[in-house]
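Progress report, Aim 2. The chain analyzed during this reporting quarter is listed below.
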Amino acid sequence: KDDLTDADLVDMILDKAKQKGTGKWTSQNAMDLGIPIPSIDVAVSMREISALKSDREKAQAIYGEHSN
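Predicted C-alpha cells for the chain:
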C-alpha cells in the first residue's frame, strides 16, 4: 500500500517506460565489436515498445486483447 493514498502500489505503476540510452549504447557498441548480447537487445526493444503506450492502446482496440 502507498502511505499517502492507501492505494495498492501495483495500481500506481505506469505502463510506460523511459530510457536513458545506456542499453542502446551498450547494444550499439557490442554490435560494432561483433559481440552478441541478445538479452540487452531484447530489453532495449521492449522498453522502446513500452514507451509507445498510445500506439499499443490503438492496436489493442483494433486487434483485441492477447489471450493464451
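The CA atoms of residues 6 and 12 lie 11 Å apart. The first helix runs from residue 9 to 12. These observations will guide the mutagenesis work planned for the next reporting period.
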